[in-house]
Every structure is written in C-alpha cells, then in structure tokens.
Amino acid sequence: MTQGMVRFPVWRARCVLGALVAAFALLAARSVYLQALRTDVGAMAVDLASRVVGESLEDVARQRRIVERFIEGLEQPDGARPDADQARTTT
Fold first, then answer.
1. How many Å apart are CA 46 and CA 33, to the nearest integer?
2. What's the domain count of the chain?
3. In Å, what is the CA distance from 46 to each residue of 52, 68, 81?
4. What is the 3 state secondary structure string of the chain?
C-alpha cells in the first residue's frame, strides 16, 4: 500500500454517489416545477388582464392595440371611454 493514501470504503462511495444522484434529481424536478409555475402564473396574468381590459389578449398585435387603447383611456376623465364599454359587450 502507498503511504499517505486514504482508503475510501466502497459502501461509502456508493452512498455519496447515491446522494449526488438524488440531489441532481431534486434540482431537475425543481427546475421543471418552477417552469410550470411560471407558465401558470403567466397564463393567469393574461387571463386577469383580459378581464380587466374586457377583451381577449391571445393575439400579440391585438394585445398591443388593446393595451394602447386602455392606457389612452386611463388618461381621459371617467365616463369618456366608449371603447371600454363597447369592448365588454363584444366579447
């Protein structure tokens, strides 16, 4: 045997390897879970925004037009937003 070498039992190496595999599996599951959570939160945010605006926000070009109209409407005094009432009746 070589002087200064530490013997590492095989069972201990297997335990360490098993712990590492479990840790990586947990990290992978966490990553998948966080991505699913981000997707769900994004969908809920779009749904909520659709309800606030009164129109569907699925189409990107339509989203921009609706948001611009909504912001313009916020700058006008109350009652001066016929677009908002019309949008709610057409959806």
1. 20
2. 1
3. 10, 16, 22
4. CCCCCCCCCHHHHHHHHHHHHHHHHHHHHHHHHHHHHHHHHHHHHHHHHHHHHCCCCCCHHHHHHHHHHHHHHHHCCCCCCHHHHHHHHHC
Tell me the one-letter amino acid at 65.
R
Domain interval for residue 61: 14-90
Q: What is the pLDDT of residues 2-59, one digit of tens each?
A: 566 667 788 888 999 999 999 999 999 999 998 888 888 878 887 888 788 777 777 7
Q: Compute the distance between CA of residue 66 and CA of residue 87 in angstroms, rounded to an integer.
A: 9
Does 8 fall in a domain?
no
